[in-house]
Amino acid sequence: MAEDLLKLAAEFEGRTLSHMSTSDRVAASREAKQLILSINEIYKQTKDSSLMDVMKRLTEKKKKIEKRLKGNPLA
User: Fold this and answer.
1) Angle between helices 49-70 and 22-46 (to 10 degrees)
2) N or C: which end of the chain has fewer CB within 10 A?
3) Phi/psi class of residue 60: alpha, beta or left (left: φ > 0; alpha: ψ in -120 to 50)?
4) Origin, by domain of life (predicted)?
5) Dihedral through CA 16, CA 65, CA 11, CA 37, nearest 10?
6) Average pLDDT across the chain, whole number
7) pTM greater than 0.85
């Protein structure tokens, strides 16, 4: 199970963010959240630092996606 999640996480990290529609960004953000929460459940039991590193990388990518979704606030 952990191996499957790590494969999904690696595939998600490898995706390009350019030329995504808004609905694609929303779906990607939700997918990232689900991956992070699933990996976190395993991390709680194993305390494996490599899992924490994966979660951090996914969180950074998720933040970039959400930043683009929110856009720039006007003055």
Assistant:
1) 160
2) C
3) alpha
4) Bacteria
5) 180
6) 88
7) no
